[in-house]
Design goal:
With 291 residues, the chain is an alpha+beta fold. The chain contains five helices and 14 strands.
């Protein structure tokens, strides 16, 4: 269904609720809605995750392949993000309507992960100057119902956490060409160190206050948002300002403090959920629609 513009009375009601720290669904300004997170949904990729929060539903798949490193970083691997805004998610994505948003999301994720503190790409090196692992992170937006950046970032973190990379049994130079030997055992693999992978926290300015995990209705009432990439240790790896509105320096400072606090707790919760899911092993019941 197409989004129906809010009336002035509806916007005023939402504004007053945020001011009173009591939003339409009963949450405070710093509360997230419950998330449904599930990994290892698809056999045809090396890692995957699906996340649902409210009416937002995203699916992430990670594929790995052997590639050549960049000349300026011969000891590092590669990480690329691709976003597909499905026309079924919202009518505004039809035609080329979702391309601009897809590029924006890809750029924000690339910026968040480019810090060495966020992801150590040297762990993807196979043979310096010659061969490395390249990770393709494909993101499909199934439904768009607010707070898209946060949902995608959490799903990406989960998908990368679940990614299993084939073990290299041998790597050598043969006549100037790199010869890479992979294990024949599909179960012989290794996983990325996801300890410092970031998540995104969107702080949506409504009136003189900011809220996290905004609904689509709350996003309609906002003139500006700040998307903060928060590492598990509480450090910020990137900050993006969106919208036409402005923020006072004092407001921005409070916004970043709120984003850091909320992001740190969200990182802990996501990692606890992923580790709990791991402990279930083969006994885990997969409820995704892809099996």
């Amino acid at each position: 269904m197409a989004e129906i513009p809010l009336s002035l009375a509806e916007k005023t009601f939402i504004l007053h609720g945020v001011t009173a720290d009591f939003r339409n669904d009963g949450r405070s300004k710093s509360d997230y809605r419950c998330m449904e997170l599930e990994t290892k949904l698809m056999d045809q990729v090396h890692g995957s995750a699906r996340l649902r929060i409210g009416n937002t539903d995203v699916l992430v798949g990670v594929k790995v392949e052997i590639d050549s490193p960049y000349p300026d970083s011969p000891n590092s691997g590669k990480l690329e993000f691709f976003v597909d805004c499905s026309a079924n998610a919202t009518p505004s994505f039809e035609g080329r309507g979702g391309e601009e948003l897809a590029n924006e999301i890809s750029n924000v994720l690339a910026l968040a992960y480019q810090s060495p503190e966020a992801m150590d790409l040297t762990q993807l090196s196979i043979l310096p100057h010659k061969k490395c692992w390249k990770l393709y992170v494909d993101i499909l937006i199934l439904e768009c119902g607010g707070n898209l950046f946060d949902a995608i970032a959490a799903a990406v973190k989960a998908a990368l956490y679940s990614t299993e990379i084939p073990k290299v049994k041998g790597a050598m130079l043969d006549g100037g060409e790199a010869d890479i030997v992979l294990s024949d055992d599909i179960y012989e693999s290794w996983r990325l160190d996801a300890t410092n992978f970031p998540i995104l926290v969107t702080l949506c300015k409504i009136g003189d206050n900011c809220v996290v995990d905004p609904t689509s209705e709350e996003e309609m009432c906002s003139s500006a948002s700040v998307v903060v990439s928060v590492l598990p240790n509480g450090r910020i790896s990137s900050i993006i300002k969106m919208g036409y509105g402005s923020l006072l320096p004092s407001t921005l400072t409070k916004t970043l403090e709120m984003g850091t606090s909320v992001g740190t707790e969200l990182n802990k919760s996501i990692m606890l959920a992923l580790k709990s899911e791991d402990q279930l092993g083969s006994n885990r019941q997969i409820v995704g629609f892809l099996r």
